[in-house]
Specification:
- This protein has 10 helices and 8 strands.
- The chain is of the alpha/beta class.
- The protein has 2 domains: 140 residues, HAD superfamily/HAD-like (Rossmann fold, 3-Layer(aba) Sandwich); 65 residues, Putative phosphatase, domain 2 (DNA polymerase, domain 1).
- Strands 5-4-1-6-7-8 form a 6-stranded parallel β-sheet, sandwiched between helices. Strands 2-3 form a two-stranded antiparallel sheet.
- Helix 1 packs across helix 4 and helix 3 crosses helix 4.
- The longest helix is centred in the middle third of the chain and has 18 residues.
- It is globular.
- It starts with a strand and ends with a helix.
Length: 216
C-alpha cells in the first residue's frame, strides 16, 4: 500500500461543529450588544482558528486589541463548556475510522482549533481511533504552515509522500501541498468544492468511504 497514514482536519471534515461554534460566539456578541450571525455565515468564518473567527465576527465593530482579547477569552470560556453539545461526527466517519483501524493505517488529526479544544472534541466524539490529536498552540504554526504536519509524519514514522491529508477548506489543501502530502478535499464540509479544487485538491470525497478507493 502506497499510503501509510492519514491526517484529518477536524471541524467540517470529521465532525460538524458549526452550531456549537456559532452559538458560543453569538452568546459573546449578544453580551456585548453586537450583531449576531446565522450558521451559514459562520461556515465562512471558520478554518483559521478561533482568534480569526472572533476578528471576522467583530469586523464591523472595528475593535481595538483589548476588545478582541476580551471577546476571544469570553468565546473560549463559553465554547469550552459547550463544544460537544450539538457537534456530531458526519455520517460515515466512524465507519471509515473503523476500516482504517482494521487496515492498521496510522491516523492523526491536525486542526487550527485551539489544542485543548481539539483534544476535547476528538476525545468525546472519536475515542480510541486517532493519535496524535493536535490543535493550534502558536499562531505562527497555524495551517497552512506545514511544520506541525511534518512533525506528525516524524512521530508516525512515515514520509510525507506516504501521507494523505484530508480537509474541507483551502487551508487544508494548502497545508497538504506545503508538506508534500496528497491533498484530499471533502464535499460535505464548510467550503464548496470549487474552493478545494482551485486550491489544488487532487481528489474530492463525496462520502467518507470514498477514501478507501484512494488507498487501494
Amino acid at each position: 500500500m502506497k499510503y501509510k497514514a492519514v491526517i484529518f482536519d477536524l471541524d467540517g471534515t470529521l465532525v460538524n461543529s458549526i452550531k456549537d461554534i456559532a452559538d458560543a460566539m453569538n452568546t459573546v456578541l449578544e453580551q456585548k450588544n453586537y450583531p449576531t450571525y446565522d450558521y451559514a455565515t459562520y461556515t465562512t468564518f471558520v478554518g483559521s482558528g478561533i482568534k480569526s473567527l472572533v476578528l471576522k465576527a467583530l469586523t464591523e465593530q472595528n475593535p481595538n486589541t483589548q476588545e478582541v482579547t476580551a471577546c476571544l477569552n469570553a468565546m473560549m470560556q463559553v465554547y469550552s463548556k459547550n463544544c460537544t453539545h450539538k457537534t456530531i461526527p458526519y455520517n460515515g466517519i466512524l465507519e471509515l475510522l473503523d476500516v482504517l483501524k482494521k487496515k492498521q493505517l496510522k491516523v492523526s488529526i491536525l486542526s487550527n482549533k485551539e489544542d485543548s479544544l481539539t483534544k476535547k472534541v476528538a476525545n468525546a466524539l472519536l475515542p480510541n481511533y486517532i493519535t496524535p490529536v493536535l490543535g493550534l498552540k502558536e499562531e505562527v504554526l497555524k495551517k497552512p504552515n506545514p511544520t506541525v504536519a511534518l512533525q506528525i509524519c516524524k512521530n508516525l514514522e512515515v514520509t510525507p509522500e506516504e501521507t494523505i491529508y484530508v480537509g474541507d477548506s483551502d487551508v487544508d489543501i494548502l497545508v497538504a501541498k506545503n508538506a508534500n502530502m496528497l491533498p484530499v478535499g471533502v464535499s460535505w464540509g464548510f467550503r464548496d468544492q470549487e474552493e478545494l479544487l482551485n486550491s489544488g485538491a487532487v481528489h474530492i470525497l463525496q462520502t467518507p468511504l470514498d477514501l478507501l478507493t484512494i488507498l487501494q
